[in-house]
Amino acid sequence: MADRSRFAAVVLAIGLLLAVGIVAVASNPGLLPTGEYERTTVDVLDAESGETLASVTVRVADTRSKRYTGLSETDSLGANEGMLFVHGEEDEYAYVMRGMAFPIDIVFVDSGGTITAVHHAEPPPEGTSGSDLTRYRGRGQYVLEVPYNYTVEHGIEAGDRVEIAGEWGPSGGS
């Protein structure tokens, strides 16, 4: 009889842990492993001349979990490295610097490939709660994150265009 009650207690404990885990993941999708990021190239073109202003090799965050994690598990970016966040549709989005250790530029791009907003984002002070994080807002289907002041150094601004190689771009592949 003692073996049955011990078995029941173990089953109950496992069930409770499983339930807590499900609730934790449901309320915080960033707890799930993100898997490997696919990579592609993003070219930024001047709106007037069509001249290439920059070419960035990016990791593609195209799932909810990958978008939630973003660059927060990254120590730094190389000179022409970044991350491309791909959303299912164009909308208003807000990005935060959750868990970030370095500053970045956040570039919003609409569904046709036009840059709609550029933000220069600093990491939050140590201990900043999620509700107190600065929200960098913009309209787009894509968000490109690059090293801090990359946009200034390359003359990138709202109205310029991006071309995204592979399946993620506005044309579905270029």
UniProtKB/TrEMBL annotation:
Family matches, as InterPro entries: DUF192, Saro_0823-like_sf
Gene3D superfamilies: Protein of unknown function DUF192 (2.60.120.1140)
A UniProt-annotated Pfam family: DUF192
Name of this chain's protein: DUF192 domain-containing protein
Organism listed in the record: Halobellus rarus
